[in-house]
């Protein structure tokens, strides 16, 4: 294994990039001043953060016409020359200059292809194992991705997301228990636990096929968090109903620029307008999550379907 392609190598890249990129260094310093509120909702300890530097992502226009008008900021030709990364297979690991996490990376594929996870979940598992000091993330094209035209993952500081340690306290339903894997529905997400990448990949494929596919879209709406610890993968899959809640599109005082991606649904909800942050309450977390997460009727159908699939295929 290339010595650089390790967790230590990623940390070295992070430090090198902050040394040469003034804007990125400034944005990471601003994380220390991010205001936070803390709420206990649905059995999870949530953090609500005011991070105006994320306005570019939260307010990104992701309709087809807007995407076609702007240059892709993940393509090498459109990135600043100082933005250097590490190559891993067909991906490049870059330091994210607009961070949420204390160490935040974006991992685009080297070719300009749409955001779509089919056939790439195993890559995410391999990345999580090789760079196990970090948490690995995926936003679906209609579930938080601000660049739905360019396939990419994200990674960041392990232990930052409340869901990583808090999920076991959530109300849970066992979906499947096999010889080497457990699949649970906990809170608002499916959790796959196994020490085998091939088993995790197979269980995820069955879940992917069981989730509803919105008309005209390329894949089920979802957010994903993957950890690798003590020889075991833990994969959190959040099935999504909507990209953004209704309040995002309202006008005047009723508008709230909240655009949940994977970090948000995993317990760190980002707000980019100070008024929104000041007014935000625990009830708003519940309202947002109820809107963007797949509704209970559809979830029950998915869970029932999955129980049959897992039993028949003996994962």
Report the β-strand fraction as a percent range. Answer: 15-25%
Poorly predicted regions: none
Total helix count?
11
| Main sheet record | 10 strands, antiparallel
**H/E element order:** HHEEHHEEEHEEHEEEHEEHEHHH
What is the alpha-carbon Rg in Å?
A: 19 Å
State the helicity in percent bands.
25-40%
Class by alpha and beta content: alpha+beta
Straight-line N-to-C gap: 30 Å
Summarize the structure.
By secondary structure, the chain is of the alpha+beta class.
Topology:
Blueprint: H1 7-20, H2 22-30, E1 35-41, E2 44-50, H3 55-58, H4 64-69, E3 86-88, E4 91-95, E5 104-108, H5 121-130, E6 134-139, E7 152-157, H6 162-166, E8 172-177, E9 181-186, E10 189-194, H7 197-210, E11 222-229, E12 232-239, H8 262-265, E13 268-271, H9 274-279, H10 282-292, H11 296-313
Parallel strand pairs: 2-13
Antiparallel strand pairs: 1-2, 3-4, 4-5, 5-7, 6-7, 6-11, 8-9, 9-10, 10-12, 11-12
Helix pairs in contact: 1-2, 5-7, 7-11
């Amino acid at each position: 294994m290339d010595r650089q392609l390790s967790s230590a190598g990623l940390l070295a890249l992070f430090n090198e990039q902050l040394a040469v990129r003034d804007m990125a260094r400034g944005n990471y310093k601003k994380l220390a001043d991010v205001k936070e509120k803390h709420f206990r909702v649905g059995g999870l300890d949530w953090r609500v953060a005011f991070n105006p530097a994320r306005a570019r992502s939260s307010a990104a226009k992701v309709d087809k016409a807007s995407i076609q008008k702007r240059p892709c900021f993940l393509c090498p030709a459109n990135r600043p020359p100082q933005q250097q990364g590490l190559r891993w297979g067909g991906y490049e690991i870059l330091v994210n200059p607009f961070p949420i996490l204390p160490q935040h990376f974006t991992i685009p594929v080297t070719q300009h292809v749409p955001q779509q996870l089919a056939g790439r979940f195993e890559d995410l598992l391999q990345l999580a194992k090789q760079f196990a000091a970090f948490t690995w993330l995926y936003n679906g094209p209609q579930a938080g991705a601000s660049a739905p035209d360019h396939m990419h993952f994200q990674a960041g500081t392990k232990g930052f997301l409340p869901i990583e340690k808090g999920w076991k306290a959530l109300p849970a339903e066992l979906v499947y228990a096999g010889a080497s894997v457990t699949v649970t529905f906990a809170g608002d997400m499916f959790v796959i636990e196994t020490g085998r990448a091939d088993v995790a990949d197979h269980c995820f494929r069955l879940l992917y096929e069981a989730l509803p596919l919105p008309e005209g879209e390329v894949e089920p709406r979802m957010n994903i968090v993957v950890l690798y610890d003590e020889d075991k993968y833990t994969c959190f899959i959040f099935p999504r109903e909507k990209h953004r809640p209704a309040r995002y599109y309202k006008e005047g005082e009723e508008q709230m620029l909240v655009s949940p991606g994977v970090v948000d649904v995993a317990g760190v909800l980002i707000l980019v307008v100070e008024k929104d942050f000041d007014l935000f309450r625990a009830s708003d977390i519940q309202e947002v999550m109820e809107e963007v997460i797949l509704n209970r009727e559809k979830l029950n159908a998915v869970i029932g379907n999955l129980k049959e699939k897992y039993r028949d295929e003996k994962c």
